[in-house]
Amino acid sequence: MYLFIISSFTLLPITYFLVYGFRDRAFRLLLQSDEIKNLVQANDGLSKELKDLILLEKDALREEEEKVKKIDFNSPLSKSILKLQEIRSRNHDSEIAYQITEIIKILASNDLFKVDLEDKAVDDQENLKRNTPSPKFGILIDNSSNVFKDNDATNYIRNNTDSIDFDTIKLTLISSGHPVVYIGFQLFQKYNLISTLKIETDLLKDFFLEVESQYDPTVPYHNCAHAADVCQFMNLLIQNSDIDFPYEDITSMLIAALWHDMKHPGFNNNFLIQTSHDLAIQYNDISVLENMHSFLGFSILQNQKYNILKNLSKETNKSIRDQIISMVLATDMSFHFELIGKFKNKIASETSFDIGKLSDKKLLMEMMMKAADISNASRPFEVAMGWTFQIMEEFFRQGEEENARNLPISTFMNRNGTDISKSQVSFIDFVVTPMFDAISPIYSNSLKPAYENLKRNRTLWSEARNLPPNNLLPLSLTKYTFDSKFRKKSYVVTKAERDVVTDEDQ
Ligand SMILES: [Zn+2]
């Protein structure tokens, strides 16, 4: 009985163990086999991926080899690639090896200089934001254009930079409204200023674009086309003079020309003073616009991303600033006769004018700036006429504004009572010719083409005198400035309106 009882008590856990212990183990084994199965499956996947990767890498390397083969073995590019391959073979970090492979891929491709369109889209977006298009009257600006690719504008500039026949209105139209960028770039290259000033071309381009964007394209005459035109004429005065100007002076003269009329509102100082305009208040009625232009220009340079003088010494910066300010302020026409008189007196006695003396050189540079600023009448008649229409339109708008405000209409600004040809003859006789006469002693014979044009233009305007004034502006100026197919002989002003011909009509 006891034995039975003991046996029963002993057998129970054994049975329990036999029944449940084996079951647990079986379960565990089953689970383990599932895990193993999963692991085997995962391992299969991994090995397959690994195989694919090795194949891909082999393919990529083969492709890479094929491309590298095509590159001249002695070229710096192939040498760089070989060096990179060598570094990759020594490096066991897969991330670094991957990056090196990517670099080799770019270097070995044919698209080394192709712009990444996605990146460019972002850049263009920013450019568009900066050059917000405004309603155009004077200058039509196309922000989508690539200002540096080879096109009609670059060809025109290349062939005409040093010609007195240069037509900046034409350049403005064929460059989609970027004459400052084109002229500026060409002249900075011509005078080797990019390397001398140690600046990046992108910074220079941004500087020109910034200057250009601060001209109001709706102003008929004092817009970026006028700025570029004055700069081109300044170039003629620099290269044709008997003086060998150092790079600092050339830099000052080109910059002064490019920004000398920034943000011009299309109304003159007298109007701003008479109407107590904010600018007149700000600058105490003294050379109101000119002070503003100069202030705006130097404000651009304050921003390091536009500062093309950032690598010059403090002293050079100081002297360039001093020269630019004096040149820009000299464009105030109220000092015109005084300045001419001062310069003529200096030059009259040979011993008194000394280009080595800072004050004398500054005076000469002011004169050059002024001559460039009023140089339109010394261009071929077809070009000069275009500018005349632009300035007259700006004058007439001021006249209308004066009339609307019950102010006396300024001379030459009455749209209905101004004899344009007569005003041009007077301007040539009393303003432009005396200015050229004054600077001629430092130009030997090189002002001859300018004098010839002045003479011819004077004759042509005199012949046009007999016409009623309105016949001189037979078509609207708006049409003239908007005409995308710029026609050089758009209007023949020496004949009556019925004889108006265009190149296309012929
Ligand atoms: Zn000007």
Description of the molecule:
It is a single chain. The protein is mainly α and 506 residues long. Helices cover 64% and strands 0% of the residues. The chain has helices spanning 2-70, 76-90, 94-108, 117-130, 152-160, 168-174, 179-190, 193-196, 201-213, 224-240, 247-259, 269-274, 278-282, 288-302, 314-330, 336-348, 358-373, 381-404, 420-439, 448-463, 477-482. The protein is elongated and about 115 Å long. The structure holds zinc ion (ZN). Zinc ion (ZN) binds next to helix 10. Residues 226, 230, 260-261, 331, 373 line the site of zinc ion.
CATH homologous superfamily label: 3'5'-cyclic nucleotide phosphodiesterase, catalytic domain
User: Strand content of the residues, in percent?
Assistant: under 5%
SSE series:
HHHHHHHHHHHHHHHHHHHHH
Number of separate structural domains: 1
Give the low-pLDDT segments: 1-6, 113-138, 467-506
Tell me the Rg in angstroms: 38 Å
Q: What ligand molecules are bound, each kind once?
A: zinc ion
The top level CATH class name: Mainly Alpha
**Counted beta strands:** 0
Active site: 222
Family: Belongs to the cyclic nucleotide phosphodiesterase family.
EC number: 3.1.4.-
Binding site for Zn(2+) 2: 261
